[in-house]
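Whiteboard transcription, Tuesday session. T.W. wrote the structure tokens on the left side:
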């Protein structure tokens, strides 16, 4: 297969399907507050044609209490995307009501596939296509797969969270920004915000950045206006959703938390602390560079060029990522509750990988460090995926030592794996996942052997 042939649609489809296989091996159906809140909203829409989750609200603490009725407190887009698909399955008889009506394990698995597995597979594919456009010392497919699969992002694939969906939309928005398509950038950014409200920080930077860019003042203003116009559909949907939910277009569900009442005061925001900033970056508790180790290589190759680079105000990635980091560090629950890694920094992880992986690929001397970092990340992510997933309690301050290692040592293999549904034991399915992962990575290395390398 020629290099040109691999650049076509068939090669892209092949890589995407391989990543989707790995990202969908585990589908989460556990009773997590976060995922159950979104699933309850979907069940309410399909079963009762209502946003009210009163029939299911006892299954989650992540909920709003408004005028005596319970609602999901989450940003609405992930649930709205899953609801039509779930309605089709229910209408065709593929899913039947259970003890809790249509709040079923199948719903959680469907949401995990659509909002976790599919977005991560697409993110990996998009980053691979970017890496392929430049010659380097790495296999683009292998480098991209190791970076993402060897990270906390793999642990959230297959789960009905919003982080990977929001990160995918944020990446699509960044791509449109780089391609100078402001309306499309605003459209994708609006979708990202409808998945995770804090991602509005990214939109703020991308909207204002053209004002101090190049070109005439009129051209720069038009770029800003086009970006804002692209965000109008998301704003309209959010205002309508808020009105139905709370009675006010400007009041979101988080202002009416039934359990986490501290969210009533400034949405749970305070001033960022040094402990939060360290904990979200290099700390072993929830550090980004600990739970996505290949980013360390990106940081190392990026730092020497900082003084030679253009002014930060022209950069679409790093200032936006830094601003989002500061916002998340301002949360009173910056650690994200029960979590594996900094789940609220999922979009930051994706944007930094988009920016830094091409830099890493251009440095031959980084091959051994990347291999070591990648294997470390794969070991952690696969171990968590095959055992406890993201169920790392808040009070466990050394999660890798005190939670992950005991689970692996004791053979606490999860049964939330698709092959288990076909009769395999969790232990056998976990072993097969490791084999499948190794086989896919070996294939990716073989597949791109003929690529030209930079000396």
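and on the right, the sequence the group agreed on:
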């Amino acid at each position: 297969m020629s290099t040109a042939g691999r650049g076509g649609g068939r090669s892209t489809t092949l890589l995407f399907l391989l990543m989707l296989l790995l990202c969908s091996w585990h589908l989460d159906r556990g009773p997590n507050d976060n995922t159950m809140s979104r699933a309850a909203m979907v069940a309410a829409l399909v079963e009762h044609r209502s946003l009210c989750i009163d029939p299911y609200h006892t299954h989650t603490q992540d909920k709003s209490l408004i005028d005596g009725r319970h609602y999901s407190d989450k940003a609405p887009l992930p649930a709205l995307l899953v609801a039509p698909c779930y309605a089709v399955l229910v209408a065709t008889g593929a899913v039947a009501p259970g003890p809790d009506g249509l709040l079923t394990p199948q719903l959680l698995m469907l949401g995990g596939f659509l909002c976790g597995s599919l977005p991560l597979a697409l993110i990996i594919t998009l980053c691979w296509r970017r890496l392929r456009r430049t010659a380097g010392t790495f296999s683009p497919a292998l480098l991209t797969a190791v970076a993402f699969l060897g990270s906390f992002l793999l642990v959230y694939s297959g789960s009905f969270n919003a982080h990977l969906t929001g990160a995918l939309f944020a990446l699509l928005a960044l791509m449109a920004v780089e391609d100078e398509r402001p309306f499309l950038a605003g459209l994708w950014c609006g979708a990202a915000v409808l998945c995770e409200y804090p991602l509005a920080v990214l939109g703020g930077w991308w909207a204002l950045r053209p004002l101090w860019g190049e070109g005439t003042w009129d051209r720069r203003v038009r770029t800003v206006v086009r970006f804002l116009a692209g965000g109008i559909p998301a704003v309209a949907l959010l205002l309508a959703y808020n009105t139905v939910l709370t009675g006010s277009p400007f009041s979101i569900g988080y202002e009416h938390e039934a359990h986490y009442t501290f969210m009533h005061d400034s949405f749970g925001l305070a001033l960022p602390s040094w402990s939060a900033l360290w904990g979200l970056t290099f700390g072993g508790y929830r550090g980004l560079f600990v739970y996505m180790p290949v980013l360390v290589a990106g940081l190392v190759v990026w730092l020497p060029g900082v003084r030679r680079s253009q002014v930060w105000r022209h950069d679409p990635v790093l200032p936006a990522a830094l601003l989002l980091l500061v916002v998340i560090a301002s949360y009173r629950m910056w650690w994200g509750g029960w979590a594996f890694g900094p789940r609220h920094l999922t979009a930051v992880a994706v944007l930094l990988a988009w920016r830094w992986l091409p830099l890493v690929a251009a440095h031959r001397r980084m091959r051994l460090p990347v291999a070591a970092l990648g294997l470390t990340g794969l070991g952690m992510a696969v171990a968590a995926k095959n055992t406890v997933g993201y169920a790392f309690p808040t009070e466990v301050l050394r999660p890798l030592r005190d939670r992950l290692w005991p689970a692996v040592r004791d053979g606490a293999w999860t049964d939330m794996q698709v092959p288990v549904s076909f009769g395999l034991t969790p232990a056998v399915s976990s072993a097969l996942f490791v084999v499948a992962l190794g086989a896919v990575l070996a294939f990716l290395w073989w597949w791109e052997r003929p690529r030209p390398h930079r000396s």
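Someone added at the bottom: Residues 162-256 form one domain.
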